[in-house]
Predict the 3D structure of the following.
Amino acid sequence: MSYIVPIGPYHPALEEPVHAKLYTEGEVIKDAEVFVGYNHRGIEKLATERNAIQTLVLVERVCGICSHSHAFTYAMCVEELNGIEVPKRGQYLRVITAELERLHSHLLWLGIACHIIGHDSMFMLIWDEREIVMDMLEKLSGNRVNYAMVTIGGARRDVDDDLRRELLDMCDKLQKPLDRMVELALNDKTVAMRTKGVGLLPTADAIRLGAVGPHARASGVNVDVRRDSPYSSYNDFEFDIPVVDSCDVFARVVVRALECYESIKILRQALENLPDTPINLGTKLQKIQPGQTVKRHEAPRGMLSHMVVGNGSFNNHRVSIHVPSYKNTPTVPFMLKNNTVADAGLIIASIDPCFSCLDR
Amino acid sequence: MQEYKKIVISKDQIVPIAEKMRKEGRLLVMIHGFINEEGLMDVSWDYAVDPVVESYHVIGETSFPSIESIYDVAAAWPERELNEIFALEFEGLDTSKRLFLPEDMLETQGKGQIMVMPLSELREKNEYKGGGLR
């Protein structure tokens, strides 16, 4: 018997609205379609009637989890157009916030993945650990979401010596629970049974469909914007890029878990070698110079690109935001094929989707 | 460091460049579009040639060949988005379904008006006049 099974827009396994239509043959999915656009807020349009500082506030609201990435990338675009060189300390502070954000985003996703698998004790363990990162972000920026750490020409808040030591202590505190989590993720039977061989995306398909970020790295594609085309001060740090080639949901769990270690590595280096320069260049509002530019940033979920066009006035002429989920969501129908309906929720969630980012 | 390289091309070079980039295994960053100061449509195909973004611009055209057959959904989604917000035509692209905007957008605001019309006019057009379902 063949049925069409709808999932969403509102479904317990999804944090955000998306609609998937599954064409099934018995319990096996033979074809699938994904529909987005339930969260479209017209942010690109709104940005055309705002100045640079107002746009920073606006683009931070694109996403609740990778909000710093958006402000970071937009600020890089305006700085390129206006020819502004950001002081080194400002760059480091941006990197610190970006890596903390990556940590908390990956831990959030790992928790949710465990929850969908049905391993709730691991979900609680991971989210408990995530609280340490959230505390660090709160200490650093004053906020748990929408950190407002970026201004045109630098960072908005400085780190003094006490805070620096405290943040480094927290890095140490994170190590032990992280080890335990990775050990559990790699050796636990429940996790292995629900994720191994599920939602396959072979390497060739990942390249053809344009997958990015941890999702592509779990399919054996070695891409990372931080290394391939360095920006800000990522050149100064040493870190590895975990690549796994088993191409299934398990690989996505492993890649994200290992990336947490790399983020801590970058955090330690940045906090220990914090340069002694001003953090920004003052807050005077600037006109956006005529021109067009595209900047890319490795957000927690993959490559994020902003295009900004200036026309010499205070307002943007055009801002175009394209997020990693925009690249990864079209791969979902390919992954769903020949899996069972019971795994559909997990496979959709395995790309770490952010539909409010996607719809903007 | 990251760089942005702007290259202006003509319409018939879009497909050969896409084929060349696909062969080299380059990622299609995005297809961007905006209306420039002279009121002409400026559409750019951006490829990641690390660490540079090579941006191939076609200026003053409103219909293009689709590169969906080369880049699959990675090109189809941006093309569908541009079709929605700027009413650009891509030959051979299935635009029967909406990607981001509501299904009733065609009746209330017309095709491709969203990025072109000033916000104040859009607001005026969509103002609630009372009666009926909102």
